[in-house]
């Protein structure tokens, strides 16, 4: 089984959105029993909480239900557990790299999600929509849907190898 972890700051907007979008893609491709997806935050402020209501609304408008997810904080063990550790922005990536280094640089090295798998946008980060309006949440979905398509293609290559 291939394991994917999406990481943002609080695990209530961007990473649960990517988690939900990826689950939907995997289900539609019949791969949900071969790929495990999770999400986490670099900070622990929202542990146990559901995704931000605005993220839930934006995702649901595109047929993605993320309401059953609960926030958790990333741990050093995640680098050993997951094949992909994907940060939403450079700040998240810096936090992940520090945790990775403190763990002796063992396991999966974190990557910047959009830079690694995005295909249709010039942006390299998924911006945090928390302090903005509804358009920001829709833009996150646009970016995440594109990058999840690229990630799925990468996963398929690994499965076929």
Mind sketching the topology for me?
Layout: E1 2-8, H1 14-28, E2 35-41, H2 53-61, H3 78-81, E3 84-87, H4 90-102, E4 111-112, H5 113-117, H6 134-160
Parallel strand pairs: 1-2, 1-3, 3-4
Outline the structure in words.
With 161 residues, this protein is α/β, with parallel strands linked by helices. The radius of gyration is 14 Å and the shape is globular. It is built from 6 helices and 4 strands, in the order βαβααβαβαα. It has a 4-stranded parallel β-sheet. α1 packs across α6 and α2 (53-61) crosses α6 (134-160). β3, α4 and β4 form a beta-alpha-beta unit. The protein has helices at 14-28, 53-61, 78-81, 90-102, 113-117, 134-160; strands at 2-8, 35-41, 84-87, 111-112. The chain has a single domain, classed as 3-Layer(aba) Sandwich (Rossmann fold), CATH 3.40.50.
Parts with pLDDT < 50 across at least 5 consecutive residues: none
Mean pLDDT: 97
- Radius of gyration (CA) equals 14 Å
Helix content: 40-55%
Note the gap between the termini.
14 Å
- The CATH C-level name is Alpha Beta
Overall form: globular
Q: Report the sheet-strand fraction.
A: 5-15%
């Amino acid at each position: 089984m291939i394991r994917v972890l999406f990481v943002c700051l609080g695990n209530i907007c961007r990473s649960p959105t990517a988690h939900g979008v990826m689950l939907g893609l995997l289900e539609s491709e019949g791969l949900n029993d071969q790929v495990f997806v999770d999400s986490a935050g670099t900070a622990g402020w929202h542990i146990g909480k559901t995704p931000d209501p605005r993220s839930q609304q934006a995702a649901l408008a595109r047929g993605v239900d993320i309401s059953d997810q609960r926030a958790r904080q990333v741990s050093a063990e995640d680098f050993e557990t997951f094949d992909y550790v994907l940060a939403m922005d450079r700040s998240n990536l810096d936090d992940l790299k520090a945790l990775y280094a403190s763990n002796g640089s063992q396991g999966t090295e974190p990557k910047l999600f959009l830079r690694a798998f995005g295909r249709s946008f010039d942006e390299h980060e998924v911006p945090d929509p928390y302090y903005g309006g509804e358009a920001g949440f829709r833009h996150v979905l646009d970016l995440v849907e594109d990058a999840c398509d690229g990630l799925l293609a990468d996963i398929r290559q690994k499965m076929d190898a």
